[in-house]
């Protein structure tokens, strides 16, 4: 009923490509050169004839425009495509010049920050992690931590910061992507922080910031299952329940940078207390802290011996696996609430795919066949094909990779966006 996906591309096969594979339905204001560049990057390698077909331009235009891109140092020729017959020279393909630009993607977190340095083709050059200081911190401290983290990645890549064209940052909170302002974040001790200005002043590199679920959705759009689907939703279950939505190959960001707070949609009037202070939120039945809260009672833990949420979740899972009925009931109930949440998403957006992501996906009770069939039962389908659901068990670096997509998008626009054809 569902597929579990892991990152399986072997980079020794040549570039796999990154970015959305489908062109948007709405004719885009992107100049032709950018469309060509993005087509080549998405496919890893492409021959001029493929470009001509895909973009809908003449062979002559393709030759002129690709010559421009080669002269600009953004594309290069490779003997990369398998020949179709046994005779003649293999057709010349084009690929992105990886070292034309570099970007760093950062995921800030309350326990470990992570960073990925990628080239212009989207391939990982280096990565790093750094334990984060506990609690809310000043902007100064956060910048200091980012400094150390980026330095670790740059050292591994043997590259100075001056060769990095942009940095993308994903973090939880209410974030205005357009202005680079953090209205509120659990990591910061002040509100309305202008990260963009402070980052540029300190590092001399532009930063692009977004909330972490949006960054994860970009990771799916650029590197994951979302590459070949124009409309999909990503639902994450971790400390909270988050959601990202891609419509027509673009991240839907809403009007106020709040992100799509699926976790705080109400599933029960006067229900369980959510950490947001309201009652009956989906998160209050599904998030780590909610399950850990129930686990403490069900497993008869001594409340005087505090256990971390993660440790409690692991115990709960092991207990459920070994047949503890109370532990199973907690997961089963959480699963039913997940079904309600997912069916609401389907009902509202009719996505082509829902990707379930986040660390909790290791707890397979949350995506058992019962959960998915309950989800279908709660959805009006009228005999239509039910919405596909995929589970993604990515490693921790996927968030930082999504943040590289934020930066790659901006750097591509800067390099090619204003060069109108
Ligand atoms: Zn809430």
Describe this structure in a few short sentences.
This protein is of the alpha/beta class and 421 residues long. 37% of the residues lie in helices and 19% in strands.
Describe the fold and architecture.
This protein is α/β, with parallel strands linked by helices and 421 residues long. It has 3 domains: 67 residues, Winged helix-like DNA-binding domain superfamily/Winged helix DNA-binding domain (Arc Repressor Mutant, subunit A); 138 residues, ATPase, nucleotide binding domain (Nucleotidyltransferase, domain 5), CATH 3.30.420; 170 residues, Nucleotidyltransferase, domain 5 (2-Layer Sandwich), CATH 3.30.420.40. The strands form 4 sheets. The protein has a 6-stranded mixed sheet with strand order 1-17-16-13-14-15, sandwiched between helices. A hairpin with a 4-residue loop joins β5 and β6. α8 crosses α9. The chain is globular. About 2% of the residues have low confidence.
Number of extended strands:
17
- Classified in CATH, the superfamily of the largest domain is ATPase, nucleotide binding domain
Query: How does the overall form come out from the CA principal axes?
Result: globular
- Reading the helices and strands in chain order gives EHEHHEEEEEHEEEEHEHEEEHHHHEHEH
How many domains? The number is 3
What percent of residues are in strands? Answer: 15-25%
Distance between the termini: 46 Å
- CATH A-level architecture of the largest domain: 2-Layer Sandwich
- How would you classify the helix and strand content by structural class? alpha/beta
| C-alpha-based Rg, rounded | 23 Å
Instruction: Kindly provide the name of the CATH class of the largest domain.
Output: Alpha Beta
Bound molecules: zinc ion
Helix content: 25-40%
